[in-house]
C-alpha cells in the first residue's frame, strides 16, 4: 500500500515510447486485429512474454540439473575405472607404473 492507501496496481502506468519508434502503431494495429483495447493488448503480450520467459527458465534449470547428474555419474565412473586399473596393476605385478617381474602362475600350462 502507498501512503494514500492505494495499492500499486491501482495506479496507472505511463509508458513512453522511444522517439521514431513504430512500436505504438504496431501495438495499436495488433490490438485492432485482436479486437482488444491497447491496454488489453499490452497486458496480453506481457503475459505471453513472461510465460515464455518462465518456460525457458524452467527448461534451463532442468538442463542444468541433468548436466549436474551426468557430471556426478561421470565422476563415479572415473573413480570406478581408477579402482579397476589399480586392481589390474596389482594383479599384473605393476606398482606405481613400473612393471615388476610377475611370479609364475600356479598350476600347469598346456
TrEMBL record:
**Where is there biased composition of kind Polar residues?**
1-10
Which InterPro entries does the annotation name? Arc_rbn_hlx_hlx (IPR013321)
Which residues lie within the region annotated Disordered?
1-20
Please give the Gene3D superfamilies that the UniProt record associates with this protein. Met repressor-like (1.10.1220.10)
- According to the lineage, what is the superkingdom? Bacteria
The protein depicted here goes by the name: Arc-like DNA binding domain-containing protein
Q: What is the species listed in this Swiss-Prot or TrEMBL entry?
A: Mesorhizobium album
Amino acid at each position: 500500500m502507498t501512503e494514500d492507501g492505494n495499492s500499486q496496481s491501482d495506479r496507472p502506468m505511463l509508458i513512453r515510447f522511444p522517439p521514431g519508434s513504430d512500436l505504438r502503431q504496431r501495438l495499436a494495429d495488433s490490438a485492432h486485429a485482436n479486437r482488444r483495447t491497447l491496454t488489453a493488448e499490452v497486458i496480453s503480450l506481457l503475459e505471453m512474454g513472461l510465460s515464455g520467459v518462465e518456460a525457458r527458465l524452467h527448461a534451463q534449470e532442468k538442463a542444468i540439473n541433468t548436466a549436474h547428474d551426468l557430471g556426478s555419474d561421470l565422476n563415479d565412473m572415473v573413480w570406478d575405472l581408477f579402482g579397476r586399473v589399480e586392481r589390474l596393476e596389482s594383479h599384473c605385478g605393476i606398482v606405481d607404473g613400473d612393471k615388476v617381474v610377475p611370479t609364475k602362475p600356479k598350476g600347469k600350462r598346456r
